[in-house]
Design brief:
Radius of gyration of chain A: 26 Å
Number of domains of chain B: 1
Largest interface: A-B, 92 and 82 residues
Distance between the termini of chain A: 71 Å
Order of helices and strands of chain A: HHHHHH
Strand content of chain B: under 5%
Number of strands of chain B: 2
Number of domains of chain A: 2
Largest sheet of chain B: 2 strands, antiparallel
Structural class of chain A: mainly alpha
Helix content of chain B: over 70%
Number of helices of chain A: 6
Strand content of chain A: under 5%
Strand order of the largest sheet of chain B: 1-2
Order of helices and strands of chain B: HHHHHHHHHEEHHHHHHHHHHHHHHH
Structural class of chain B: mainly alpha
Oligomer: heterodimer
Chain lengths: 178, 511
């Protein structure tokens, strides 16, 4: 075993890791570009807000003492850590490049979320069949850019398959129309 | 060592039901390994509601099968499409795709399958021998030890995983905070429930995991530009020649050991071990320049290691009750749902679960070897399925599956809310993994630290004076400080080599 060969790279593990990272970065090119300092600060502030919220809420629950910890002591301790770390992130994280910009494509995610909420709202009212059909169809046709024909065929087949598996075979008590 | 429970474990595995779930698990694992878009973590999260219907043994056998099956499937995309499904098979791309370009994709897949099989099997043998010993050692752990171990686990996952460490630790703390929602077990006070009956019971693990791991990944992938054309290379003969086998023999042996030992370490052992195994082979090769240009060892080493590591990452979970990675956190949650507390008592209290799951992996690996060599053509054909078609189907499984847990629409809304949270986290560079893991361990850490404080009469130095919890906490400090030391060393290096890595962002994580 030639554990120390000066002619070769000093730290092969780091080299391989760096190469792997480069490949990963190249593969991520189909992702939206990274976001600027504003998003980074906003994210850190969201963390800060969560921490402050937790700290205030748990303080109200009562901290007690170390010998007799109240219900709020543990969540208070965590919240303080969140506040401290988020504050550090506000300061140090401004120039990080690990966040993605919200782009036009993010609107697709918004559409997707709306279909999910609609399904949850409609499910107890009119059963799962029609909301599911709509969801799959919207996802295929507009989010996935499939053709009209394959969108219709696949969505109908999917819901039929779900009906057979969930309702007929597994007898899951899903709210349903038929 | 008494081997009768091990033999009985095989009896458990060979029950037709369990065999079936093992088969289903490894097939799903292989499929999602091959299909782009959904990782094993997301899949296991989405399928968690299934575990309510079946008993603990078949449920965990299936989930474990998905986990190690995905390691086999991931190889196929790495070699044929240059698309590693998992971080742990990124290194496989270097030589795997080079071999595919030379028309030797079959050789790469065959060697990877054999390596994965051997690595997996060696690791199960290690698991069989080592796990009861570790569990026996941990039997007299008290609350302080568990509190310390829990903190160490959370910290390791946060610091070894991908992404920015500060962000990971913040995410983990939010997970700990979410775990406190509901009735306090000590005082009975309701915490953060806002007078909601649903929240009084606490937040359920299943919708949280389904949202943060499953739905968030689907939502995140919607934004991916769908411009990749999948035209997998021809596979050809999968059976490796004697020469290739001879070349890879050493790499497979060493990869098994590297994978086994690094996999035991909490925090992404599979990725680290694949990197280490590749680097090690390259370093000891007579012609290191062959690596990256289609060296079979370059495929055999990382694929063997990541499989061995995937298997040995069960050790901390099954023996100490500490999940070593995000997927193990899901399996931990699945066990809790079944009323089984993973930990040192598991082997004594639930030998059927312990040995059933371990022994099912022998069978699972044989099934996977069959699927990856003679039947590989079937899975290569699946590469042509478009992710756009898969997404709505998985989303529907997720939402309806969440409903079936308690027959409540509330759970669907919970999944959507956590899906949105996970999506925003991913967009802003936070990993959901540490949050979920910390959530799982949260009440254990809180309860055992409060019990410890009672034992110590309110004196927190007691954590440090007990030998084992003291050692574990020293490790915690080490894990927290080590990145700072590395950072300092890196700062020094550019001074020695001026054209060095000075422009590299120091904060960025290099595993």
């Amino acid at each position: 075993m030639s554990m120390s060969d000066p002619a070769r790279s000093p730290e092969p593990l780091d080299d391989v890791a760096a190469e792997a990272e480069r490949l990963q970065a190249e593969l991520d090119e189909s992702r939206p570009p990274h976001a600027g300092p504003l998003s980074q600060v906003a994210a850190a502030l969201a963390g800060l807000a969560a921490g402050i919220f937790g700290a205030v809420g748990s303080y109200a629950l009562g901290l007690g003492s170390l010998t007799q910890p109240g219900p709020g002591l543990w969540p208070f301790a965590i919240s303080v850590v969140i506040v401290a770390l988020s504050a550090a992130l506000v300061v140090t994280g401004r120039l990080l490049e690990d966040a993605e910009r919200f782009s036009k494509a993010s609107l697709l995610t918004l559409v997707a979320l709306v279909t999910l909420v609609l399904l949850a709202v409609l499910l107890p009212l009119i059963g799962f069949e029609i909301p599911s059909l709509l969801l799959v169809f919207v996802w295929l046709r507009w989010l996935g850019k499939e053709s009209w024909r394959s969108s219709i065929v696949i969505s109908v087949c999917t819901v039929a398959a779900f009906y057979v598996i969930f309702v007929l075979l597994l007898q899951v008590p899903l709210p349903r129309l038929i | 060592m008494d081997i009768s429970p091990i033999i009985n474990g095989f009896g458990v595995v060979l029950e037709p039901d369990n065999l079936l779930y093992c088969l289903v698990g490894v097939i799903i694992g292989m499929l999602i390994g091959v299909l782009p878009g959904l990782g094993p973590g997301a899949t296991i999260a989405i399928l968690l509601p299934l575990t309510y219907g079946v008993g603990p043994v078949p449920a965990i056998i299936m989930l474990a099968g998905i986990f190690y099956g995905a390691q086999y499937g991931g190889t196929i995309t790495s070699v044929l499409l240059r698309l590693p499904g998992e971080a742990s098979s990124v290194v496989t791309v270097f030589d795997g795709f080079a071999l595919a370009k030379q028309g030797r994709a079959g050789t790469a897949l065959g060697i990877a399958a054999i390596g994965s099989f051997i690595g997996g099997t060696v690791s199960i043998l290690g698991l069989t021998l080592l796990a009861p010993i570790v569990a026996g050692f941990a039997l007299d752990f008290g609350p302080p030890e568990y509190a310390a171990l829990g903190v160490l686990g959370v910290l390791l996952i946060s610091s070894v995983g991908n992404g920015h460490k500060l962000k990971a630790i913040i995410a983990a703390c939010v997970g700990l905070l979410l775990a406190t929602v509901g009735r306090d077990t000590f005082t009975g006070a309701e915490r953060f429930t806002f007078d909601s009956l649903n929240l009084a019971e606490g937040i359920d693990f299943v919708p949280l995991a389904m949202g943060l791991f499953g739905l968030s990944e689907i939502l995140y992938n919607i934004e991916e530009r769908h411009n990749q054309v999948h035209s997998p290379a021809k596979v050809g003969n999968v059976w490796p020649s004697r020469k290739d086998l001879g070349r890879s023999k050493g790499a497979i042996g060493r990869g098994s050991l590297i994978g086994f030992f690094l996999g035991v370490l909490p925090g992404g052992g599979a990725t680290l071990s694949s990197l280490a195994a590749y680097a090690f082979e390259k370093r000891r090769a007579k012609q290191p320049e062959r690596f990256g240009r289609g060296a079979v060892e370059g495929v055999a080493a990382p694929e063997t290691a990541n499989n061995a590591a995937a298997t040995s990452s069960f050790i901390p979970l099954l023996t100490l009750g500490i999940p070593a990675n995000a997927t193990m956190a899901l399996i931990f949650g699945a066990l809790l749902i079944q009323g089984i507390q993973p930990g040192p008592q598991l082997v004594a209290q639930h030998p059927d679960v312990f040995w059933g799951v371990i022994n099912s992996m022998y069978i699972g690996n044989i099934l996977l070897l069959i699927m990856s060599i003679p039947m590989v053509g079937v899975f290569v054909r699946i590469l042509r399925v478009r992710p756009a078609i898969l997404a709505p189907i998985t989303v529907l499984i997720t939402l309806l599956g969440a409903y079936t847990v308690n027959n409540q629409v509330y759970d669907i809304f919970l999944v959507i809310a956590f899906g949105l949270l996970g999506y925003l986290m991913k967009k802003l560079g936070f990993e959901p993994g540490p949050l979920v893991l910390a959530f799982v361990l949260g009440s254990m850490i809180e309860n055992s630290s409060r019990q410890s404080l009672l034992i110590f009469g309110g004196d927190p130095t007691g954590f440090f004076t007990r030998p084992i919890s003291g050692t574990v906490l020293a490790l915690v400090l080490l894990v927290a400080v080590l990145p700072l030391i590395r950072k300092a060393l890196r700062r020094r290096r550019p001074a020695e080599e001026p054209a060095g890595r000075a422009d590299e962002p120091v904060e960025e994580n290099t595993p």
